[in-house]
Amino acid sequence: MFSSKIYKLKFTVPFFIVALCSFLILSCGRKNKEEPEPVTNPELNQLIKIHESGVLRAVVDYNSTNYFVYRGRPMGFKYELLRELSDELGVRLEISVINDPVESFDGLKEGRYDVVARNFAVTLERRKEVDFTAPIMHTNQVLVQREVGFGTPDSLYIYSVLELADKKVHVQKNSSFHKRLQHLSEEIGEKIQIVEDSVLGTEQLIAQVANGEINYAVCDQNVGFLNKTYYPNIDVSLDISFPQNIAWAIPKGDDVWRAYLNDWITDFKQTKTYAVLYDRYFESPRIVNRMTSGWHSITGGKISNYDQIIKQLAEENNWDWRLIAAIIYQESTFNPEIESWAGAYGLMQIMPETATTLGIEDYKDPAQNIMAGVRMLSWLDEQISESVPDSTQRVKFVLAAYNVGLGHVKDAQRLAEKYGKSSEVWDNNVDYFLKNKSAEKYFKDPVVKWGYCRGDEPYNYVHKVTANYMHYLNVISES
Fold this sequence. Notes:
- Helix 13 (321-332) crosses helix 20 (456-475).
- The protein folds into three domains: 15-131 and 250-291, Periplasmic binding protein-like II (D-Maltodextrin-Binding Protein, domain 2), CATH 3.40.190.10; 141-242, D-Maltodextrin-Binding Protein, domain 2, CATH 3.40.190; 307-475, Orthogonal Bundle (Lysozyme), CATH 1.10.530.
- By secondary structure, the protein is of the alpha/beta class.
- It contains 20 helices and 13 strands.
- It has helices at 15-28, 46-53, 77-89, 101-109, 124-127, 176-188, 202-210, 221-228, 255-268, 272-283, 286-291, 307-316, 321-332, 352-357, 366-384, 391-404, 406-418, 426-435, 440-443, 456-475; strands spanning 55-60, 68-70, 73-75, 92-97, 115-121, 131-132, 137-139, 141-146, 168-172, 193-197, 217-220, 234-235, 244-250.
């Protein structure tokens, strides 16, 4: 029902304004250590575009280290780094999941993304297409195989790269692992049978090695060590490359954006926060419990204990169950007994009088509480459908009304229309007037019927729910 839309901004201003904006943004952000010349082509100035749009558009790959959902919450090393970066920039973070490097690079070139935050090994060939930031980390490429002693014949275990001759090794398509194996084949003077997989990611190939479906794969050393904690029968001790820089990719030729990111990465890697994040995703003993849990989107795909109830009620009422789950996460973090100071209760924070109006007998029962919330959403959708015909836009209006009440949303629509904005569009139109409805200029306006509203709360509520919903769309199955 809901999908995020990205609108391109065509930004054309005289050179001196671009240079001034670049200087001011850098000055207000991080100290500029590289001191690049201002970008003369405003089409290349990604930093200005990000501030203008208010969104950082980033690509990650979906795996157990970079990005996943656990207990309804988006997590991952790269995800958390990007969240820190977006906070530093003062913009919202928008995540896209793409596992194919070629598709990621194409998105950068076409202006659909600002940064690709994947485990990219920096190579001369890739530098021809994109620019790279300062290294996020360093790692080697290693061979993934099964250890001797776990039921695997000794003849399959490889002790030296020379023994890779005529062996079949599986790698992710378009990865740096493929190129490294090609070079290694030349170095040892023997053919290595390289099998490129266009469907499975590196971690899925590691799992196939552990399960005996294939014999060999390749991964980065840190990822190999991590996977060994929950696949103890794999061996990742054989290096097949020298240490390599792992960095983020950005559009080619934008020195201002690259300088900003380089300064931020260099500084952030020295912080305690970075050390905590690295430990959380690569060294903590809790990694095994998290990965083997049914709550992990990769291994279990379970958001909450109430998934089946949510799915049933969402289907019956023509809602995406992942949107309902995102609302419940925001309302109660799936705690069925939570009660607000105002008396709202349960998973979807239902007021007693609301439950009665909706025909719910026991709103403290989790299933009936969800039913009440879904019925309320459907009612709000009906009330707003005429004034907001586009269903994608309407979801945001419904969410705001669920949080603060339909009257305040209608007031914001009337204000938007009065001040020359669209009453049918949420972002940068109606949302502005709801957010600012605490200002006397607006809540005392003659078109306003419901008076004062602390608008920050519903404004932020819509952003948080839709952001979590997008995370669920990225990694959680529809059925």
